[in-house]
Amino acid sequence: MAKNKTNDGYQRGVYGALCTLMHFIVAVQFTYGIYYDFKYVHFPPEMRRPGGEFGGKLKFLTVWDAILQAIYFTVCLLNDFIGTNEIAPKRMPLIRKVKDYMLAAFAFPVALNVGVTFWTLMAIDRELVFPKALDAVFPGWLNHVMHTNICIFMVLEICTSFRQYPSRKAGLTGLSIFMTAYLVWLHIIRHFGGIWVYPVLDVLNLPQRIVFFAVSLGFSVGLYLLGEVFNNMIWTKELKQLKATTSGGASKKTK
Description:
Elements: H1 2-40, H2 61-82, H3 94-125, H4 140-147, H5 149-160, H6 168-193, H7 206-234, H8 236-254
């Protein structure tokens, strides 16, 4: 029995160390990707659209998401050291609460929104989202960091780290505020810079743009629900354990 407990403890220790290593690698990757983008990726004058300077690189949801992912995985790393990854800790640290909420409301749905939308539009007509001329100034590895790895590491994170999703109302409220803020930002750039950030919006009339934005918001909500279902499927046993523990604690308090 003691030997089994020792083996279990060792396995949990190795597993935890691997998760921490992944969080470190991913946090560094996104942080470096953002640094490289701001420091070294500069479009020549002939590739810049008039008014495109307004908002800088923060015009793009891709950059918002990269910053979000860098922050999220840094929070994961901090939680590994000063928080807890237990299923049902006696006292839930604030850093763990922030980590769990960030994945549900922001990190997962925004990452998949960016990745799926980008590669779908690339397949339809890349000139509408990432013109071929950009290949000369925007390296392929950075493109995959910004548009591919975000999805891969989000799926890995859900599969390797337990969390309990917040209430659907709380999660969707956070996501809606985030996405609405970005849509408002798009229109601010349009007003002051005179351009739509994404060329695809130039070919749409007003009713079509309204439909496009509505579908984008609806798609984000769908991705939130997908993340919730996916998380509950992966961690069914642990969620039942947490529910039983919580119910048991509540029963003892009642008595």
